[in-house]
Amino acid sequence: MALRVASVHRVTGVEATAAGRDRARAAGLRVVESVSAIGDAELAVVMVATPEQLAHLVDHAIDSSVTGRLLWLIMSTVGPASVREQGARLTANGARVLDAPVTGGIPRANTGELTIFASGTEPDLAAAASTLSTMGVSGSRTRPWHLISGFRLPSRTH
User: Fold this and answer.
1) Is the pTM of this model over 0.85?
2) Homologous superfamily of the 41-148 domain (CATH)
């Protein structure tokens, strides 16, 4: 996904592991170890595997005072409770949030053909539109992210 977005936008990846940072650099991406080092980013695209990883990222963002200036695009399928909880923490610290879970797996991420279920305010959806379009097709809904975050579709990608 990062390579797709980097074809159009400047990307700074955040990767906790040295091996992951090495892979990102080998692919030509700028990558840092902590969200506190993201520089002047305006949009944070979040793709983590677990609710604990999302909470950890949000903890560091709040501690680093980087939340308020960012539009957070939470693309992880970590469950509605996690998205609501962490989204509320982000908005309480001045951030804007879009809930945008995806389906399609790595094969479609590599080709920019993910199906993205994005929800949020019209201005936030518009601000993220060019980034979303590099990753796939968005079924956007202008609804508060916290009201739609309970909607998830099971999917299998083969």
Assistant:
1) no
2) NAD(P)-binding Rossmann-like Domain (3.40.50.720)
